[in-house]
Automatic annotation (TrEMBL):
Location in or out of the cell: Cytoplasm
HAMAP family: DAP_epimerase (MF_00197)
Record-listed E.C. numbers: 5.1.1.7
UniProt keyword terms in alphabetical order: Amino-acid biosynthesis, Cytoplasm, Isomerase, Lysine biosynthesis
Residues annotated as site: Could be important to modulate the pK values of the two catalytic cysteine residues: H138, E188
Descriptive protein name: Diaminopimelate epimerase
Functional note: Catalyzes the stereoinversion of LL-2,6-diaminopimelate (L,L-DAP) to meso-diaminopimelate (meso-DAP), a precursor of L-lysine and an essential component of the bacterial peptidoglycan.
Binding site for substrate: N13, N65, G75, N76, N170, E188, R189, G199, T200
ATP-binding found in the keyword field: no
Active site: residue positions: C74, C74 (proton donor), C198 (proton acceptor)
Gene behind this protein: dapF
Length: 257
């Protein structure tokens, strides 16, 4: 039987979206999910997202990386599923949904989505990097030659190396552009390559830059390969609260496979 799918992207981080409110999708078929995400043999995407019913909230989000494995929170995917839920008529302009890291509130205006992310209170400062979890684990480090280096090779070495090993971490390389703007390139675990944008990644970068004193602003602009995102937050007793990831979420095409 053919499967209807929708393709969405948020700053170039692209996803296969499936309406699984009838629970027909085989969630245990890792190879099939990887095939759907394959850019040569399948539809092509950085990840696959299921929209499911929830007893008390608007919907539930289930996220898989392009390798076919279910993973931790996807910020850009979270913005895209809000646009998808609106398209399906599940929500109007506001949403409260459950993802693997807990509840998320969101608003959508045209294709601009503001998504509330996890509060962050634990930030590890190391000699050459910062590590924090914004729903997914993120290694953040400065890279002056950000426009011209082998991110796949360097990112993969860090992702699979100590202390992350097999469980891994996403890896963000950052260059300061101004007081309020940073350039970011991300190597994503589970895609095992650079993606054009990573929502939990830029959230981690914005918080890390504030934590390190690289910005005093609580609205930070992030220039990524696929466009621009904004992250805002409040800081209370060293805890980053009311963290919002802001950017577009765009329908690309619909099909059957
Ligand atoms: N693209 C995502 C992050 C998805 C999860 C990540 N690959 C992982 O496994 O940790 C985002 O926009 O946050």
């Amino acid at each position: 039987m053919l499967q209807t799918f929708y393709k969405y992207q948020g700053t170039g981080n692209d996803f296969v979206m499936i309406d699984n409110r009838q629970q027909k999708f085989d969630k245990n078929n890792t190879k099939h999910i990887a095939f759907l995400c394959d850019r040569r043999f399948g539809i092509g995407a950085d990840g696959l997202i299921l929209l499911e019913n929830h007893d008390d909230l608007d919907f539930k989000m289930v996220y898989y990386n392009a390798d076919g494995n279910e993973s931790s929170m996807c910020g850009n995917g979270g913005r895209c599923i809000v646009a998808f839920a609106k398209h399906l008529g599940v929500i109007k302009n506001n949403a409260v949904f459950e993802a693997i890291d807990g509840l998320h509130q969101a608003t959508i205006d045209e294709n601009m989505v503001k998504l509330q992310m996890l509060d962050v209170s634990t930030i590890e400062k190391h000699e050459n990097h910062v590590f924090l979890n914004t729903g997914s684990p993120h290694h953040v480090q400065f890279e002056d030659a950000i426009d011209d280096f082998d991110i796949r090779a360097k990112g993969s070495k860090i992702r699979f190396g100590e202390p992350y090993n097999k469980a891994g971490s996403n890896v963000n390389f950052v260059k300061r552009v101004s007081d309020s703007t940073f350039r970011v390139r991300t190597y994503e675990r589970g895609v095992e390559d650079e993606t054009l944008s990573c929502g939990t990644g830029v959230t981690a970068v914005a918080i890390a830059m504030h934590y390190l004193g690289e910005t005093k602003n609580n609205i930070v602009n992030l220039n990524v390969e696929g466009g621009q995102l904004q992250v805002s937050f409040e800081v209370e007793n060293n805890e980053y609260k009311n963290v919002l990831l802001i950017g577009h979420a765009t329908f690309v095409f619909k099909g059957e496979i």
